[in-house]
Specification:
By secondary structure, the protein is mainly β. The protein has one domain: Immunoglobulin-like. Strands 1, 5, 6, 8, 9, 10, 11, 12, 13 and 14 form a ten-stranded antiparallel sheet that branches. The chain has a two-stranded antiparallel ribbon with strand order 2-3.
Length: 179
């Protein structure tokens, strides 16, 4: 429950930070890449029994290494995932592919195409989704798209944007940019 509250608090804090950063004009263009707004941040692993935008988390806890994302206001989703692994085994288990869903408010607005998840838990997503305008309280969910038994439709999320309390790692050297 504490982790779920931390995730909800993180989402709200990110939304407030984005509005404060641009004076509430809806143009969180802190990386000056010409995308006319959007949001960016880091990913954290999920815990069982969490629900965000109607999507359940996976049945086991996940951890993620230094991973970051950028979602532009035109719907470009760029995600670099490193070390997305099951906490108990240090492996990706049966998960072979992931996708990214952007939720606005409490509704999934769009989902990217699926990409391969390496055995080290690494993946890169660079795709477009259609977003409403405005997209209030955006959230990025990394979801299971396929396992060793085949594709998964509407899979659970195993990572989400968030802030880990006490983590002062303000990585402003983003490796993401317009591609």
């Amino acid at each position: 429950m504490k982790r779920f509250l931390a995730v909800v608090t993180s989402v709200a804090a990110l939304a407030c930070f984005a509005m404060a950063e641009d004076g509430g004009r809806g143009n969180n263009n802190s990386n000056n890449n010409g995308n006319n707004g959007g949001f960016e941040g880091q990913l954290i692993g999920s815990s069982p029994n969490e629900h965000v935008a109607g999507v359940a988390s996976g049945g086991a806890p996940w951890v993620v290494g230094q991973s970051e994302f950028n979602v532009s206001s035109n719907g470009r989703v760029q995600v670099q995932i490193r070390g997305l692994l099951l906490t108990g085994t240090g492996t990706t288990g049966p998960v072979t592919m992931v996708d990214a869903s952007v939720a606005c408010g409490d509704v999934v607005a769009g989902t990217t195409g699926a990409v391969m998840l390496t055995t080290l838990g690494n993946a890169s997503i660079n795709d477009m989704v259609t977003l409403p305008s405005p997209c209030i309280a955006p959230t990025l969910l990394i979801r299971v798209a396929a396992t060793t038994t085949g594709p998964v439709t509407g899979g659970p999320f195993i990572a989400i944007n968030g802030i880990v309390a006490g983590n002062n790692n303000n990585n402003n050297n983003s490796q993401l940019g317009d591609h």
